[in-house]
Amino acid sequence: MRFENPVPLSEIAALIAARIVGDHDAAATGINEIHQVEKGDLVFVDHPKYYDTSIHSAASFIIINTEQKVPEGKALLIVDEPFEAYLKIVSAYRPFRPSMEAVAATAQTGPGTVIMPHVYLGNHVTIGAHCVIYPNVTIMDHCTIGDNVIIQSGTVIGSDAFYYNKKTNRPVHYKKMISCGRVEIEADVEIGAGCTIDRGVTGVTRIGAGTKMDNLVHIGHDTLVGKNCLFAAQVGIAGASVIEDEVILWGQVGVSKTLTIGKGAVINAQSGVASSLKGGGAYFGSPAVPAHEKKKELVWIKRIPQIWDRLNKSESSS
Fold first, then answer.
1. Which distant-in-sequence residues (6+ apart) come within 8 Å of 4 by Cβ?
2. What pLDDT is stored for residue 157 in this prediction?
3. What pLDDT is stored for residue 35 in this prediction?
4. Integer Cα distance of 246 and 266 in angstroms
5. Ranges of the chain with pLDDT below 70
6. Alpha-carbon dihedral of residues 136, 142, 143, 147, nearest 10 degrees?
7. Any catalytic annotation for residue 24?
8. d(CA 206, CA 48)
9. Active-site pick, 24, 124, 221, 292
10. Are 203 and 184 in contact (CB under 8 A)?
11. Rounded-to-integer distance, Cα 261 and Cα 243, Å
């Protein structure tokens, strides 16, 4: 999430009751997760496993629960509960502002775009030229739609990320991580009926130009979909995955989180993608493997009864 204007670190420290170690006079330009951070960003970390990664990431300012050696040009903001500090910052600089109008006053649409009845456009939504948005589509705050995009009825763009911080004190419970990111849909994308595309937690969920989606497709938070992809009905992609250009996912393919499917890969129907796959190949099964390997496996499985009968006959004759 980018702040509207750079925010002095002293202001942020006062908001979250933090002690600053390092550059006191700096200003933060945004807050992001570790895999999305850029220079000028804040990032939070509350587990020793990720201290070093966070401190040496592109982030300039690290919200942390213990003092560590800080590189030159960076600063630590030390608090007891970094996750709670994150929630305070997001609530302060991107507060929840409900819009009770069908089309928010800050929403913008381009020339030639058709917005049909019962469409909801949230705050700061931008829609390009010559789009068609069918009835009962919901596009939530800060989402961007490119030119020549078609969105069929019942689709929701920019719903909150399915992202929770697990609290292990008894009873175990999950605390919502406020979503302050957005969705970007590039030009010439077509999205079917009843699809759901979650916003980034702090960054962006992106659908690349020319991509086409069937009905009932779900795209998780922070997923980056390339250009000219094709997704059939009931495809589900978990958060923070990368789907490169020209990938085809046939019906009911499930993709796990934080993995990459390479350019031009084809995943056959009802497959489960559990780990990254190279581009250019065809895959099938759960977990998905090269399709020719899976077909050989299925042939041998069909032969098991014959092999069993032969073994039994051999034993009886002996």
1. 93
2. 98
3. 84
4. 9
5. 318
6. 100
7. no
8. 31
9. 221
10. no
11. 5
Q: Which two tokens stand for residue 75?
A: 């600063």
Q: Break the chain down into helix, strand, coil percent, rounded to 5.
A: 15, 30, 50
Distance of CA 207 to the CA centre of its chain: 11
pTM: predicted TM-score of the whole model, two decimal places: 0.92
pLDDT at position 318, please?
Answer: 62
Bridging pattern class, strands 126-127 and 108-109? parallel
Residue 91 DSSP one-character state: H
Max Cα distance, the chain (Å):
90
**Rounded Cα–Cα distance for residues 11 and 122 (Å):** 29
Domains annotated on the chain, with CATH: 2-93 (3.40.1390.10), 108-291 (2.160.10.10)
Backbone angles phi, psi at 22, to 5 degrees: 115, -140
Residue 15: strand, helix, or coil: helix
The CA distance from 303 to 308, in Å, is: 9
